[in-house]
Amino acid sequence: MSVTIFYLEMSSPEQLNEKKDALGLQIVEAEIDEFRLNKFLYQLIGEQWQWHDKLLLSDEHWQQYVSSPNLRTWVAYYQGTIAGYFELKSDDNGNTEVVYFGLAPHFIGKGFGGYMLSQAIKNAWAIPNTKRVWVHTCSLDHQSALLNYQARGFKLYKTELESV
């Protein structure tokens, strides 16, 4: 089986085509590092999209990953329930990656994705020294994922075909 990987980027905050209607979604940064939260979110959101590469990692690896000063995590809530999350990771060259982004199964198709992605992008540009925001998605993700990234202003810069 082959998977297509799409790499997208934004080179200025003005490229953001923001969706402003939150529809009751609240997005909060997890300001205290707790690797179990990230591990839980990764599994909750990623299970349906075959995110399994990190599930076998040790707790020590998760702790190291989450405690990186360049990684920040936001959780989306709807009526008190976790609806989704995103992680942003910056580097010393001014690149900020939307590392993980997604909605929990019950919240897909309710119009939350555009707003949550807009918030991810705005928070990425707010990280000091960010010159470029980028993300990758693949053909295993939700059918609207690529369209949502492009609708928010990301431009496709590379496509790869990978055998799995």
Describe the structure concisely for a colleague.
The protein is of the alpha+beta class and 164 residues long.
Structure description:
The chain has helices at 35-46, 59-66, 113-126, 145-151, and strands at 2-10, 25-29, 71-78, 81-90, 95-103, 132-138, 155-163. It has one domain (2-163): Aminopeptidase (3-Layer(aba) Sandwich), CATH 3.40.630.30. The N and C termini lie close together (6 Å). The protein contains 4 helices and 7 strands, in the order E-E-H-H-E-E-E-H-E-H-E. Helix 1 crosses helix 2. With 164 residues, it is α+β, with helices and mostly antiparallel strands. The chain has a 7-stranded mixed sheet with strand order 2-3-4-5-6-1-7, with helices on both faces.
Find the count of extended strands (DSSP E, 2+ residues). 7
Oligomer: single chain
CATH superfamily: Gcn5-related N-acetyltransferase (GNAT)
Largest sheet: 7 strands, mixed
CATH architecture identity: 3-Layer(aba) Sandwich
What helical percentage do the residues reach?
A: 25-40%
Tally the helices. 4
